[in-house]
Design a protein that fits this description.
291 residues; alpha+beta; Structural Genomics Hypothetical 15.5 Kd Protein In mrcA-pckA Intergenic Region, Chain A; Pseudouridine synthase; four-stranded antiparallel sheet; 6 helices
């Protein structure tokens, strides 16, 4: 006869009662404990979303003991919710602001403004034109030179800013460039095939002539390169001086035609959701094949 195994009786605690079953939830196929609910987030992620710095720098602050949660020293990997009290060097951080959707501004930067809060020369700052934000601060997505105008995006989400600026994701930037001189087809080919700069080869995804008057000529270039002054250096390497430079697009966001210089337009909640969806659905960058 086959051996019959009797079912084990349920374990009992010392009080004689059966312990309550430990409920586990599933998130992306990975079981988590009840305390790891959707209402909580990793501490370093929460701090980064407030605009205080990158996730790595927030982890460093936690390790150095600068962060406390509910009066106790914070630990790496711990999760927090809106009810927790977080302090950095004794300063209270408002966590409830993180649970709200991030704010996003499209700012038309004029020439003559610097993308910095502190300037030793006392030049006008782009941040002076922005509205106040509660429980965080505005983070610029990329920079524009003092003499460059056009689209500058601001957000209250450190994670969104990092996602759009990180070189690994290769987000496109489109510029309208006015140069002194006559651009020829071979110049446009050089831009797309690659130009050797001091800090490595740079190239444009596309380059298109847009006409001009007199000694000036316009063209539009698209790059995935965010290096400092890369557009100006590309044309200078080809022997042209850039007399005007304007960014007209960053990723899916275009410079609003009805927003005057020094003014901004804030995205609606629906537009922010679309931007977040675009960021989440963007395919991984493909390696460029040398031409």
């Amino acid at each position: 006869m086959p051996k019959v195994t009797k079912p084990r009786p349920p374990q009992q605690s010392r009080s004689g009662r059966s312990p309550a079953p430990r409920v586990r939830k599933e998130v992306r196929g990975k079981p988590i404990l009840p305390e790891e609910s959707a209402d909580t987030q990793k501490l370093h992620k929460v701090l980064a979303q407030t605009g205080l710095g990158s996730r790595r720098s927030m982890e460093t602050w936690i390790t150095e003991g600068k962060v406390t949660v509910n009066g106790a020293p914070a630990k790496l990997g711990m999760r927090v919710g809106a009810q927790d009290q977080i302090k950095i060097d004794g300063r209270l951080i408002r966590v409830h602001a993180v649970s709200r959707p991030p704010r996003v501004l499209l700012y038309h930067k004029p020439e003559g403004e610097i993308v910095s809060r502190d300037d030793p020369k006392g030049r006008p700052s782009v941040f002076a034109s922005l509205p106040a934000v509660s429980g965080g601060k505005w983070i610029s997505i990329g920079r524009l030179d003092f003499n460059t105008c056009g689209l500058l995006i601001f957000t209250t989400s450190g994670a969104m800013a990092n996602r759009m600026m990180h070189p690994r994701f290769e987000v496109e930037r489109e510029y309208a460039v006015r140069v002194m001189g006559k651009l020829l087809p071979q110049h446009m080919s050089q831009l797309t095939e690659g130009v050797e700069l001091d800090d490595g080869v740079a190239y444009c995804e596309s380059a298109e002539l847009r006409g001009g008057e007199g000694a000036n000529q316009w063209c539009h270039v698209v790059l995935k390169d965010g290096r400092n002054r890369v557009v100006r250096r590309l044309f200078e390497k080809l022997g042209f001086m850039v007399s005007r430079l304007m960014r007209v697009r960053y990723g899916p966001m275009e410079l609003p035609p009805r927003v005057n210089r020094g003014k901004y337009r804030e995205l609606s909640a629906e537009e922010v959701a679309k931007l977040q969806s675009w960021l989440g659905a963007s395919p991984p960058p493909q390696p460029r094949v040398p031409r």
